[in-house]
Amino acid sequence: MTVHNRPHITGAIKESLANLAARKYSQKSITTYENGLNRFALYLQELDVERVQDVSVKHLNSFRLHLVDADLADTTVYLYLRSVRYLFSFLEEDQQIFLNPAIHLKLPKCRRKLGIVPTEEEMKKLLAGPNPVNPMGLRDRALLEVLYSCGLRKAEVAGLSIFDPDIKQKTIRIMGKGRKERIVPLGKQALFWLVKYNEKARPHLCKDLNEHGLWIGKYGARLSGGRVNRLIREYAAKAGFTAKVSTHAIRRACATHMLRGGAHPVQVQMLLGHVNLGSLSQYLQVTITDLKQMHKRSKPGR
Predict the structure, then answer these.
(1) CB 164 within 8 A of CB 174
(2) Are residues 15 and 56 in the same domain?
(3) pLDDT by 10s per residue, the chain, length 302
(4) Which member of 14, 107, 283, 292 has the greatest number of CB atoms within 10 A?
(5) Domains held by the chain: number
(6) Residue 37 to residues 43, 86, 124: CA-CA distances in angstroms?
(7) Angle value at C-alpha 32, between 152 and 110, nearest 5 degrees
């Protein structure tokens, strides 16, 4: 059995964050955990509690009430308490504590605000926005088609290289969160425009033979995720969208339209690269809402 001599809360927090990094969590996720744990450490400091072994259920419940009394958003309270629960789970697994005081720590139920989901008609307008006569217009049409077909995240689409599409197999390799790789199918339109882009536009845009990025900007370098989002906003405004549209809105549209079209949730989960089906709940809520509205309009049973 490993014997540890790191009783202070600050040292335990550093170790737990290092564990997240070792498990390939994104820097954004690690920062979220760090914010919650730092808030917890400051609270314990006010109570003169320095050792993790001295933290009790009473301390944790009072911290929860402290967060609620601070008038924080439900999602913030949830994230802070989740980070604390993770910390003690890590300490228990690492044998730094024998009993986990956070095992029954209650997390608030927070209703996730649903982001906008472009309709199929709106997506048609968005996809028709770029002018494929010029190289950058052709690039943008191919990029939007791949985004919608595959439901990619911003970092995933920006990170694509020329070696990722397999035109013969009609698939594309995606490097997702935590460096997790997945192979997803390319839809008919995405494949068509991607081939045209690679043949007619990319050779004109790329100035460096050593540049392996798939999407090339006007100066010959790989497009950044920020630039991808700006392009989408420009085409969304052109298509008459009033709400803010991003890569994630197109990702939501892909998932929602597939589910509405009869795709199995597990298939959509695999396409999007989600770890579990719970992550699809926001898309399923949208389709249930659509179903209720249709049910109300059609008035079955009357």
Answers:
(1) yes
(2) yes
(3) 344 454 588 999 999 999 998 888 888 889 999 999 999 999 999 999 988 889 999 999 999 989 888 888 888 888 999 999 999 999 999 888 888 999 888 887 766 566 778 889 999 999 999 999 999 999 999 999 999 999 898 989 999 999 999 999 999 999 887 778 888 889 899 999 999 999 999 999 998 888 899 999 988 889 998 899 999 999 999 998 887 888 888 988 888 888 888 887 777 877 887 766 666 666 666 665 665 665 466 445 44
(4) 283
(5) 2
(6) 10, 10, 45
(7) 80
Whether 153 and 39 share a structural domain: no
Residue 102, domain member (yes or no): no
Angle at 164 between CA 162 and CA 167, to 5 degrees: 90
Predicted TM-score (pTM) of this structure: 0.65
Rg (CA), the chain: 24
Catalytic residue among 153, 202, 252, 257: 153
Q: Could you confirm whether 295 is annotated as catalytic?
A: no
Candidate list 86, 148, 197, 283, residue with the active-site label: 283
In the set 4, 59, 125, 248, the catalytic residue is 248
Asked if 270 and 133 sit in the same domain, the reply is yes
User: Both 125 and 57 in a single domain?
Assistant: no
- Check if the beta carbon of residue 203 is closer than 8 Å to that of residue 211: no
Catalytic annotation on 23? no
Is position 74 within any domain? yes
53 lies in which domain range? Answer: 9-93
Residues 250 and 142 in one domain: yes
* CATH label of the domain that carries residue 155: 1.10.443.10
Q: Examine the residue annotation and report whether 153 is marked as an active-site residue of this protein.
A: yes
